Prior knowledge:
The chain has 256 residues and is of the alpha/beta class. The chain contains 11 helices and 9 strands. A hairpin with a 2-residue loop joins β8 and β9.
Amino acid sequence: MSDGHLDRIREQFTRQADAYSRMRQITDERGLAALVALAGTRPEDRALDVACGPGFLTLAFAERCAEAVGFDATPVFVARASAEAARRGLTNVRFENGDAERLPFADASFEVVACRAAFHHFPRPERVLAEMKRVARPGGRLLVADMVSDEDAAKRAYQDRIERLCDPTHVRALAESEFDALFAAAGLGVIARPKSSFDYDVDEWIAHGAPGPEAVREIETLLAASLETDRCGLRVRREEQKLRFSHSAVAFVLAR
């Protein structure tokens, strides 16, 4: 990634580390365990979690395999994750800092290579995927779990506009068909793709990005304009007097 984009990621997530680390979707232990199981993780495996954030998925891997490594661009997340591992008494896990386009690991180092909730931050997702493939052992599994956008290009653009207003490090959400094309170009076969959704009220979601008042007003206006006619593919609605929406997500398991 360009130094500028990495700097923006580090600034954004350093500023919002507390709020991001408390999000239900990030800390959900049942969901984390399901991803570890979905990847076919075995007790003898080494697992790598790319763009690990506060490290909750990495720690879930560590509890179920021989060794887990978390890798992230933001030093504050690496420090927080290392402290949480120590608090849990986990000795088979470590965390490193750097660029996901340049993983500092040897070829074929891991049986499982995962990346959750991060591909929409990558300007060149094909490069990150190539690095994930490089460090995975032949016969290993890759796990890519992220939000997916609508297949309609206009709705994708509308969603990306909203996402960037909340978090300027958002690049773009890929449609499921775009993920498929990305994987096919990398020579990776999809062996599973369970789908899910994550529900938010708008105030809760905005808190993770902490945009300024002007951006908040624009987000609310754009979402409200999607109540009667779906302009963004986010299933915007009002429930109990609150504006709410849902992200669609897919967890792709790929054969190396």
